[in-house]
Amino acid sequence: MSRREVPTPELRCSRCHTELQRFWGYCPSCGRRLEWKDTQRETNAECAYCGWIVSDAASFCPWCGRNIQDEDSSDEPLKAPKGFKFHRRCEWGCGGGVMYPMRFCPWCGRAQTWKYEDFQNVCPHCDRGVDDWMATCPWCGEDATGRDLIPRALRRARRLLIVSRIRDWHYRVALRPGVSGVAPRAPKVIELDRRYVTGKRRRDEISWNMLTGLLLHELGHSFLYHHWSWTRSGRFRRAFGEVRKAYRVADEHWVDFERRRIATTLTDYVSAYAATHPQEDFAETFRFYVARRGRLRELFSEFGRKRKGVRVYEKFLVLHDYVRSLRGWK
Ligand SMILES: [Zn+2]
Ligand SMILES: [Zn+2]
Ligand SMILES: [Zn+2]
Ligand SMILES: [Zn+2]
Predict the structure, then answer these.
(1) 102: CA distance to ligand 3 center in Å?
(2) Beta bridge partners of 53
(3) Which ligand is nearest to the CA of 52?
(4) What is the mean predicted confidence (pLDDT) over 91-110?
(5) Contacts by residues 119-122 (CB-CB < 8 Å, ≥ 24 positions apart)
(6) How far apart are CA 133 and CA 48, in angstroms?
(7) If you measure from the C-alpha of residue 159 to the centroid of ligand 3, how many angstroms do you get, rounded to a whole number?
(8) Is pLDDT of 92 > 80?
(9) Spacing, Cα 21 to ligand 1 middle (Å)
(10) Is 43 a residue whose pLDDT tops 50?
(11) How far is the CA of 104 from the centre of ligand 2 (A)?
(12) Judging by DSSP bridges, how do beta strands 189-193 and 172-176 pair with one another?
C-alpha cells in the first residue's frame, strides 16, 4: 500500500488570492496577518498563544518563541518531530533540528537566522528576504520597500515631476543594501542605498534634500531606460553622446546630489558627476531640470552667469522638447 500523500493546502491569501509560502507571517500583497494552523491534522497541536502549528514534543513555539513545555515535551532535543522537516541544527548548538523558516528553536527557544537567497531584496525593517513585487514584508508586516522611511523625499520628488509636467511612468522605489541605481533589466525599479536611511548615517545626518536629489538622479536613469529608443535620435546623441558606452562607476558620489547649484568648474556639464558618462550626464540634467520645475528661463540665466557652454543649454532643450512631445505638445 502506498503512503497516503497529505494534500497541499491552498497556499493563497483568503482575502486577495496572492500566492503565499507556508509560514509567512503576512500576505505580501494586502498585508493580511496569516495564521498557519494544523488544518491537515499533521501534529494535532497548535500553540496556545499564536495558534500556529507546533509539535507536542517541542518546548518552545518556533513561531512566537513562547514556552509551551508540558508533559508531552521531549526531554531531549529532537531532529524533526512529526509534521516538521529537518533543515539544519539549531545555530546555538543545543543539538535540536530546525526547519526553515522557524524564528525560534523549538527545543531551546533561541532565535534563528536564515539566509534568504531566493529573494531579490532585504527588508529594511527586519533584514529578512523580500521580493520587489511585495508591498508588505511577509516576515515582519512592515513596508517591504522601505518607502515608509523616506516619505518626505518621495512626496517632494513626485510633486516636482508633476510641476515639471513629466508624466508618471509607474516607477517603484525600493531601499537596497549597498547600492543605488536602476538596472536596465528592471527600468522601473529605483534602488536607493538603504545606508542613507537606516544605516550608520542616520536620517538626521543625511538631509532629505540629498535624498530627493539622489532620487531625482535615479529617476533620470529610469526615465531614460523607459524611453530608450529616444537615445538613438540624432539630436539626443549630439547633446549627450553615446549612452550605450560601457562603464562602471563607484557609488561614492552621493555628496554631489546634495548640490543644488550648478557647478562652475566644467563648461559643458551641470555637475562634475555628469562628466563621468553620457548616462550620468543625462541623469544629472534630468535632476536639475526637475528640481528647477522645468523652468528653462531661470536655468538659462544661471548658465549665463556661470559661463556654461552651448552644449549645456542644448541638453536641457533636448529634454524639455522631449517631455513636451510626450504630452502631445507642439
Ligand atoms: Zn492578501
Ligand atoms: Zn506560538
Ligand atoms: Zn536550540
Ligand atoms: Zn520585514
Answers:
(1) 11
(2) 46
(3) 2
(4) 97
(5) 121/174, 121/176, 122/176, 122/177
(6) 34
(7) 51
(8) yes
(9) 12
(10) yes
(11) 10
(12) parallel
Average pLDDT over residues 2-11: 52
Place of cell 544629472: 284
CA of residue 80 to ligand 2 center, whole Å = 18
Instruction: State the virtual CA torsion across 109, 48, 139, 43 in degrees, nearest 10.
Output: 80
Give the closest ligand to the alpha carbon of residue 198. Answer: 4
Asked if residues 131 and 119 have their Cβ atoms less than 8 Å apart, the reply is yes
CA 91 vs CA 14, 63, 110, 278: distances in Å: 34, 16, 9, 49
Condensed to tens digits (0 to 9), the pLDDT of residues 263-302 reads 777 888 988 888 888 999 999 999 999 999 999 999 999 9
Q: Is the pLDDT of residue 201 over 60?
A: no
* The residue count for the chain: 330
Distance (Å) from CA 130 to ligand 2 centroid: 23
Ligand nearest to the CA of 47: 2
Work out whether strand 97-98 and strand 88-89 pair parallel, antiparallel, or are unpaired.
Answer: antiparallel
